[in-house]
Amino acid sequence: MGLVIYQVDAFTDKLFGGNPAGVCILPQPVEEGWMQSVAAEMNLSETAFLVKQQGGFNLRWFTPTVEVDLCGHATLASAHILWETGTLKKTEQARFYTRSGLLTAELMEGWIELNFPSTPDEPATAPADLMKGLNLNVTAKYVGKSRFDYLLELDSEGTVRRLAPDFTVLKQVTARGIIVTSLASTPGYDFVSRFFGPAAGVNEDPVTGSAHSCLGPYWKRRLNRNEFVAYQASARGGVLRIRVSGDRVFIAGQAVTFLRGEVAE
Q: Is 4 helix (H, G, I), strand (E, B) or coil?
């Protein structure tokens, strides 16, 4: 029997929404190149690989082309699978040891809440390829840069939704990705966003949990609040509940399993 691999739609309560992630629980560590090859074959924005260790699980994330330091939706998907398969009891906390330190997840009334490090931005000057690649026809209200990504606040939700980037140009920007955001005009949400990461092999990520480690602190500064309901306005779309507390950002979402298969060995 081959290794079992799952595909989970994260940050949604319905199939074919949110952000699909691969999840593979390994019996022991494997060679990095093999994980990268599996991620390329899955061709999802991220595939997560877990190995049980003392006190939790080692967790690594791969896009189809590179390993990344932080990923929200594949972490949420991993916790979902650990509980769904009975690997962990639903009352147990999921603990992940990663390149970004210890991350945890808890199941709370049907929502999975991730405890992530805050990655706040600082004001920055937008490089020419960033503005050209976004095809912006308005001036950004704000440009910043976090540890991983550029962040731009735009004038409206409509502008965010209508963006049609030139990914060939945007790929030249030196950053993991580009977050664009605005106040929400859709009832029920505080802010909206989209995320583009062509340099990491993902032109547009459907729902980016880790981007909210930056968006949460940003909107806390802007609105002087700690809690938000956010919507990532990709074609698939996804809903996130955000809570900012000190140097941590709590990111909550739902998840559904799409498929279970085997990797031929």
A: strand
What does the mean pLDDT of the chain come to? 96
Residues 98 and 161 in one domain: no
The pLDDT of residue 265 is 67
Residues 69 and 142 in one domain: no
The set of catalytic residues is 46
Q: 226 Cβ partners below 8 Å, 6+ apart?
A: 220, 243, 244, 245
- Using a 10 angstrom Cβ sphere, with 0-12 exposed, 13-18 middle and 19 or more buried, the burial of residue 189 is middle
Q: Residue 150 contacts by C-beta under 8 Å, 6 or more apart in sequence?
A: 124, 126, 130, 143, 144, 173, 175, 177, 178, 179
79 within 8 A of 70, measured Cβ to Cβ:
no
The pTM of the full predicted model, rounded to 2 decimals, is: 0.95
- Does residue 101 sit in the same domain as residue 143? no
pLDDT in tens, 111-136: 999 999 999 999 999 999 999 999 99
Q: By residue range, what is the domain housing residue 52?
A: 3-110+251-263
